[in-house]
Design a protein that fits this description.
The chain has twelve helices and no strands. The protein is mostly helical.
Length: 297
């Protein structure tokens, strides 16, 4: 009975999602008017992915998830760093949650049709656990991807500052050093820096402003602090070189300390497998002797 109720609820939810997709709700007139009168926000520097299978499968549920306040501010920033749209993220959460909820019930129904029965708490508990795991899994993946990109960007930023320092010492101007240095590097980090400088050139704003905006979007305090320091330094080459040299040295020291801390943590994690292997080896060696002693007694 419980399995049939859950299957009926899932079928009703699917029919509702299909109706919402066929006849989408119309936005209120007040919302449209406020959007027309609002001041447009500055275009973001980071790009976002707007496609994927999850959009087509779980798009009917994105409105419901947005109504409850998802995604949060932190997840939205991580999505921007991972270059994924919030619609794709919400659709993936809904799709994985529904899959986790319905999969144990479906398996239980198939087992029941095969002549065996399962106690109703088993598929119910499995559905709740898998549904919660599927709902939270996209958040964990986005956080991990965003943190990985932040770490890579910090390393690239240190190299970028060193290149700018070398170009300034060779007599290049500030704007020329920024452009020439960013053209040397490759990868996602340098692509974001190039995009920020292109936005500054096209909008006729200071490069420090767009670099500061990029630091806020990436949640990288080193880039925001660098932009603030260079804004105060102005266009005087000596002060700019001094600021870049100090910031590059600080970032190198911090990167070295972080790498050493991660290496120590990895070493500590490797101690547990070694202990387990030693314990298993001891059991493997002494078990025959213990068996013979026990049989002799």
């Amino acid at each position: 009975m419980i399995a049939l109720v859950l299957l009926g609820a899932g079928a009703g939810l699917g029919i509702w999602a299909l109706l919402v997709w066929v006849v989408p709700p119309r936005p209120p007139l007040a919302g449209l008017t406020s959007r027309l009168n609002s001041v447009p926000a500055p275009p973001p520097i980071l790009l976002k992915d707007t496609g994927g299978w999850a959009v087509r499968l779980g798009s009917p549920f994105t409105g419901l998830l947005r109504a409850v306040g998802l995604p949060g501010r932190t997840i939205s920033q991580d999505l921007a760093i991972a270059e994924r749209s919030s619609e794709t993220h919400l659709a993936e959460k809904a799709a994985l949650a529904l899959t986790g909820l319905l999969l144990p019930t479906t398996v239980a129904a198939v087992v029941t049709l095969g002549g065996r029965s399962l106690a109703w708490p088993v598929p119910l508990g499995a559905s709740l656990v898998l549904g919660a795991a599927g709902f939270l899994l996209p958040d964990a993946r986005v956080r991990a991807e965003a943190e990985r990109r932040r770490e890579a960007f910090r390393h690239a930023l240190g190299a970028y500052l060193n290149l700018i320092h070398v170009l300034l010492a060779g007599g290049a101007g500030v704007d020329g050093a920024l452009t020439d240095a960013v053209g040397v590097g490759q990868g996602w980090s340098f692509q974001q820096l190039r995009r920020a400088l292109n936005v500054a050139r096209l909008t006729r704003t200071s490069p420090w402003t767009t670099l500061g905006q990029l630091g806020e979007e990436l949640q990288i305090s080193e880039l925001a602090e660098l932009a603030a320091a260079l804004t105060l330094a102005g266009t005087e080459g000596a002060k700019v070189r001094a600021s870049l040299s100090a910031k590059a040295a600080a970032m190198r020291q911090r990167s070295g300390a972080d790498a050493e801390g991660k290496a120590n943590a990895a070493t500590e994690r490797m101690a547990l497998p070694g202990v387990l292997m030693a314990f298993g080896f001891i059991i493997f060696v002494f078990y025959p002797a213990l068996t013979q002693i026990t049989n002799a007694l």
